[in-house]
From TrEMBL:
InterPro entries: DUF2357, PDDEXK_7. It comes from the Bacteria. This is DUF2357 domain-containing protein. The lineage of its organism: Bacteria, Pseudomonadati, Balneolota, Balneolia, Balneolales. Residues 86-334 form the DUF2357 domain.
Amino acid sequence: MVTKETHHQKLDIPVQLDNGNTIVICIISESGEKIVEVDEAEAREYGEAPIQLYEASTYEYKVEDKYQIDNTGRIIRQSKFNPSSGRLVPNIYVGTLKLNICDSNGSQCGCLELEVRSIKTNYRTDYRRMLEYITEWSTELLMQHSSPVSQQFTIDYSADAATLYQRFAFIKSILESDEFDQAVYKIIKTPSSEWEKTNKKRDIRSIRRPTRSIINQISSSEKRIRLPDSHPQKRKLGSVPEKVLTSSKKETIDTAENRFIKHALKSFLKICSDFKEAAPETHRLKMEAENIELNIEQYLNHDFFAEISSPDILPLNSPTLQRKGGYREILRVWLMFDLAAQLTWQGGNDVYEGRKKDVASLYEYWVFFKLLNTIEKVFDIKTKPAEKLIEATGSNLDLKLKQGKYFPIKGICNTYSRKLNIQFSFNKTFTGDQDYPNSGSWTSNMRPDYTLSIWPHGINESQAEAEELIVHIHFDAKYKVKDLDDLFSANIQNSKKKNQELDKVNQEEKEGKYKRADLLKMHAYRDAIRRTGGAYVLYPGDKNLNKKGFHEIIPGLGAFPLRPLKSDDSSQHLKDFLKDVLSHFLNRASQREEISFHKYDTYKEQPGDSLEEKIPENFGQKRSLIPDKTNVLVAFYKGKGHLDWIKKHGLYNARTGNNRGALKIGTKEAGAKFLLLHTFGETVTDKLLKIKESPIILSKQKLVDLNYPNPSQDYYLVFKVTQVNRNTFREVEWDITQLSKYSSGRGSALPFSVSLTELMKAKATD
């Protein structure tokens, strides 16, 4: 259909009141979006009002004196000076808006219907396609063998208008689809046909080429005529039958398959008529059902169907119905149709309650099914969603998906090297103000639209949270995001332009245009929800952006396109990302796994004693100088000669073996970063050396070669050491008797290790 639209900055709209009088309502656009007047036929096709406004725009209105518009809703902002004027502020509302007109006494005396259209130019087709996809997905769930629904249902036309419309919306999405129209026209243009054999009595004189059957009839049939004497066959036959029975073949379209198509269309027409009759007089259901009824009647009035008789059987196993283009689509619709007519949807009120068409909410539901389908394929899992999403309630089949209602769907990803638990959640709430290591948010409650949670198979979710083994990846659906510039500022290199861009963003936020609010929400998910590996926006665009926090695919932030199109929904970017996530989890040497372990190891216990002493700043080559993790080896030297040898060769030797005085080597001793030396009777010492690398084993002979005085052991554990800058620890002295592992007497010569934190608390007092 060619769109016929007229755009107005100001429009006077005549409205006929209930008493027959006519008044004028004037509407003026305050913002850039004008008032649109569409063709009546187009408005009727889409179930819309002809006068149309735009969401997120504002309009002034003025009604003739003594009349006013009821301001009980949130869209009407009535003037406090003149109740006959005010502003229309649709905000995010999309759909048909009914304005009740009241007289000076406050009594309703008429109404005006306006359409609030989305700022997205293709929202009409998006709305149809998304609802169609949800219908197909839901009815296919019901047709699965594993579906919990096996009993037969009938449509209750006595249900309330909202429930009726929920049911009707599903079948409407099927019958208004482009595929349905194309299927019917394809059948009419290239129908299935067959050759029909017919028998007819013909005058024998018209026979030119007699068949065997005719020859038999010539000799045996009755009602004969005598041949004239001059006839060449007079002597043999004498007479011939007056008429003989002949057979011929004629092509016909009155086939079992075409009779089924006609039956299916009549079934669709009957249900739409029933919905129309059951709908309240002014409800949108009546008008929309009537539109579809007219469309189907146009199909059935085509000359093609005039030649088709009523079916005596339904040839559901026919190869033509199952394979031929057009026929297979109508068969599929027919199989889905009854289930769709019985299906109600708890979330439907979010989408089309009253007469609204909340395409943004519908996009959120549509993305759920798209994401679920993608996750099932990428992680090769079977989630059995029908058991979670479809419920038989009385005479209804209820699709339970609803905003704010938590739905977890689980599966197991079994790869060649690792088994992973996969959980895809809709509207999972991460409870706020949770102390570590509990799951949830450490600030306020957070509820992303969708959360993909991954953790190793073999443990439950609670244990995975406590041990830092689970990763959450969040997605939010944002239908109204136009492009990536709505989320991320362009990559501007010039610093002056960067500042100008930030100034522009700040000004827009002051004006209430929070362009980057969605980006900030992704940061909130990433930073507030524990064990979050990434947060991403899904929007109906064509570009993707994946910002990595470090080097690997997660943690990260970004956006992926997901468009409600049949041919190219742009989901490949999302699929590639999820494939990379799976590969990342199969990499057991990833940096994220290492960080996860260190996080768990660091935070599993409450912090130890504080340390407020002066120590080297933790940067550059000293970046790993963490006091609690830095070990100091406290060891003995024999005297001045031994100390001079240590300083000259940069080596310190310790006994090995099981004898008393030998160094019992463990991870703390082997990984010590400093060496503190003391000798006989020396309990306060400043002899701190830095250990350069892990200890090595040297033989007695090697020490002799290095002029070590009187080595007594066959082998020694030797540390390479160097002098510590005197300014590093500000000429500190330590009292080793304050250390927990110190032993007095002969035991004072035994080597032991302490943390730098404990050592700094043993500073000698002046």
